[in-house]
Design a protein that fits this description.
This protein has 447 residues and is mostly beta strands. It contains two helices and 32 strands.
């Protein structure tokens, strides 16, 4: 971005000094003309051109990183350091793609497990990912990794990091119109914060050995989660728990009008949910969700399950196109949380009559426990699919419309004031709001 355009950002803008440990980053856009300095302590870094990272990048506290529309960030699968690359936001981070010019963050080989992910710190005040594609993440950190050195997410080295992690109970984040796919572990993991997660696609999450959730929430979170499509999450579409670092902060979750398809098939151990797994006293509002051919119905462990009495778990539509699917979401199946107000397939339904365009493998096996399509795993995600409901689909009616969202007026984000594509609500803050409930089940109604 040229200096003449810097007025789109509120406050002063100052180039970040690339501290020791970051000098090996190859950032094509870093040059003096990208910034305006007005002599304040606020530091802002703007990536306005395609950028290649050959080592981990850290946004210092009280600083902000803006990734501008159309930028591709390429992560080196063979970094110059002795651990996988991570983007660690101790300060704030804003990835500001648009529908026509998304931001893309991927590895140079396109293989899952090539890099870590975006890991936000305990003092990250704001994180916004809008129209951002994130793939190939989930690598296991080492003791020299930036996230581990800052005591974020992992306190022991026992597996990979999520593609996106947020943990500041007093902070705010939003994931809007993003595309997370082919990440090796959890797509997202939340241990604190107020957030909006809406209109995203989460596809092909995790691996058969270690599992992987699309949306994994612990205590300390107040979230509205709506209109997301979740396809082929290895373990669960939603894993919800009130365990976590914030022991005195019960999460408040309103989860509605999401579509989850073909989840839970590949988990070879600790067979959990597929649709949603409730544990450690969590009490979500979970309504209007369309759950299609997932391994199990709504489920909880035998011990330390959810707070079912204070949860709202209906109405939802649990659709199964196989007899095995029907049986594994039925009332008498082990660990099932049953609610008569949910619509649950009593016999195999015709999947071809549900969505406008979607195809399953003819070898599909809801219990395949494999990443191999030939052994029954789901097909890879296809951009040709269309998860709008057909005009006569029964899921078009019967959903709730009266549930109250956590943030009906939206969440204000200071760092978006003046940023491209945002509209001022009151001249001071810029709000992001999850859309209101719709009277159909799932993320999309009819066309």
């Amino acid at each position: 971005m040229k200096a003449s355009k810097a007025s789109i950002f509120a406050g002063s803008v100052m180039a970040l000094v690339l501290a020791a440990g970051l000098t090996s980053c190859e950032n094509d856009n870093i040059n003096p003309n990208d910034y305006v300095s007005q002599g304040t302590t606020t530091q802002t870094l703007v990536w306005s051109h395609d950028t290649t990272l050959t080592s981990s990048f850290k946004v210092p506290e009280s600083s902000s990183l803006y990734i501008m529309p159309g930028v591709t960030v390429t992560i080196a699968s063979k970094p110059t350091e002795d651990h996988p690359i991570e983007i660690v936001a101790l300060g704030s981070i804003y990835s500001l793609g648009t529908a026509d010019k998304p931001v893309v963050i991927k590895s140079d080989t396109g293989k899952p497990n090539d890099w870590g992910g975006i890991i936000c710190g305990y003092n990250c005040e704001e994180a916004v990912l809008r129209y951002t594609e994130i793939s190939d993440a989930g690598a296991t950190p080492t003791e020299s990794s930036v996230s581990f050195q800052n005591k974020l997410f992992k306190t022991t080295i026992d597996g990979g990091v999520p593609a996106f992690h947020y943990c500041n109970t007093g902070g705010k984040f939003a994931l809007i119109n993003c595309f997370f796919h082919d990440n090796y572990n959890d797509q997202t993991y939340f241990t604190g914060g107020s957030g909006i997660i809406a209109n995203n696609i989460f596809a092909d999450s995790g691996n058969e050995t270690d599992g992987g959730e699309a949306i994994n929430v612990k205590s300390g979170c107040t979230l509205d989660i709506a209109y997301n499509v979740i396809y082929n999450a290895c373990t669960n579409a939603f894993k919800l728990s009130d365990s976590g670092v914030e022991s005195n902060f019960e999460s408040k979750l309103v989860i509605y009008n999401n579509t989850a398809i073909d989840c839970g098939w590949r988990r070879t151990k600790n067979k959990k949910g597929g649709n949603v797994w409730l544990e450690k006293g969590i009490a979500p509002v979970y309504v209007n969700n369309l759950m299609v051919d997932n391994r199990y119905g709504i489920r909880q462990p035998a011990k330390d399950g959810g707070d079912i009495a204070n949860s709202v778990l209906a109405p939802n539509y649990l659709f199964a196109s196989t007899q095995q699917g029907v049986e594994q979401q039925a009332k008498d199946y082990s660990l099932i949380v049953w609610d008569d107000k949910n619509v649950t397939s009593a016999a195999p339904e015709d999947l071809a009559k549900l969505f406008v365009a979607f195809a399953q493998s003819d070898k599909m096996n809801i219990n395949c426990e494999s990443d191999n399509v030939d052994k029954g795993a789901p097909l890879p995600w296809s951009n040709t699919w269309d998860f709008h409901l057909q005009a006569d689909a029964p899921a078009l009616s019967g959903a709730a419309t009266t549930v109250t969202r956590n943030f009906p007026s939206g969440l204000p984000f200071y760092g978006l004031k003046g940023a491209p594509g945002e509209t001022a609500a009151n001249g001071r803050y810029f709000f992001i709001t999850a859309p209101a409930l719709s009277p159909y089940f799932g993320a999309y109604g009819s066309k």
